[in-house]
Prior knowledge:
By secondary structure, the chain is of the alpha+beta class. Helix content is 26%, strand content 36%. It is built from 2 helices and 4 strands, in the order E-E-E-E-H-H. The chain has helices spanning 53-62, 64-73; strands at residues 13-18, 24-29, 33-40, 45-52. The strands form 2 sheets. It has a two-stranded antiparallel sheet. Helix 1 (53-62) crosses helix 2. This is Large ribosomal subunit protein bL28. Belongs to the bacterial ribosomal protein bL28 family. Keywords: Ribonucleoprotein, Ribosomal protein. InterPro entries: Bacterial_rp_bL28 (IPR050096), Ribosomal_bL28 (IPR026569), Ribosomal_bL28/bL31-like_sf (IPR034704), Ribosomal_bL28_bact-type (IPR001383), Ribosomal_bL28_sf (IPR037147).
Amino acid sequence: MSARCQLTGVQPAFGKKVSHSHRRTSRRFDPNIQTKRYFLPSEGRTVRLKLSARGIKTVDKIGIEAAVRRIRARGEKV
């Protein structure tokens, strides 16, 4: 499963882990990706989306129809 939000496009970031002795090693900051099902009334079916926590809040705010329009405008399949 790719760690990428279909709505916001957020993906893993990379940085350094710093120990107590201040040695630096590489690490990866993964986004909080959740698989969520929504009913799409215009098509009469459910869609399964991989969204970050912020993406879920965005869907709650703008609605599933507008969110699917944004995802399709980015060229992603829903």
